[in-house]
Amino acid sequence: MTPEEHQIIASYATTVYKDTISLIIVNMTGFGVSLLGIFIASRILVTKRWTRSRIALFSCLITIFTTSTWASLGRVTVALIQDQVLLAQIKPKVQGVLEAAVKILDKRLLSTLYMATWSLTSSMLLNDLIVIWRAWILFQRERFWQAALVLLMVVNIGIQIADCILDNINVKAQLSGSDIILDWISAFISMVVNMFATGLIAWRAWQVLSNSCL
């Protein structure tokens, strides 16, 4: 094999290993926890009287389930397609066969990567929107906190969309397993939005509980 083929083999071995760890430990575990949360929330909604807000919330839960499943299937598909490179069957005296196989593989992965990126972002934004919505309702008379919630959500949406666009532009970086820094920033911003809104909800609950005890 040529040095270029050795480099390709090492790169793909690392990528497949990282995808397997991410798929088994992170992706599927997170998907299972998400399904559990959706089931619990849907179960609670079904036992109550249907209102416009609850119908909207149930619609969001269905959309989150769809996009999360779509994203998880996309990630599984990427890992399975990458494993189809049969390195053991490549003849050592024939040069260029591995590079051709890699190019064909990359073309097959493009549409799957686009699908997984946008569906995962849609799921994350809907999750953030639900938490922001609940906090917004609890602070209807306090403009400052409402403005903070809106500002954080607008920034979150902008960064998530920018991350998806850059992921699509730099799709070769995804195929090689490289991490784009905006991926980490978008995840951090989403976590900040959730923590801020959840903190406001907990604060309001504590205020109500304290007043009821007086």
Description:
Keywords: Membrane, Transmembrane, Transmembrane helix. The chain crosses the membrane at residues 20-46, 55-73, 113-132, 144-161, 181-203. The protein starts with a helix and ends with a helix. It is elongated and about 80 Å long. The chain has helices at 3-46, 52-82, 97-138, 143-169, 171-175, 181-213. It is mostly helical. The relative contact order is 0.09. The protein has one domain. Helix 3 runs antiparallel to helix 4 (143-169).
Index terms:
membrane; transmembrane; transmembrane helix; single chain; 214 residues
Give the oligomer, counting copies of the same chain as homo and different chains as hetero.
single chain
Helix content: over 70%
Q: Total helix count?
A: 6
CA distance, first residue to last residue: 79 Å
Transmembrane segments: 20-46, 55-73, 113-132, 144-161, 181-203
Keywords: Membrane, Transmembrane, Transmembrane helix
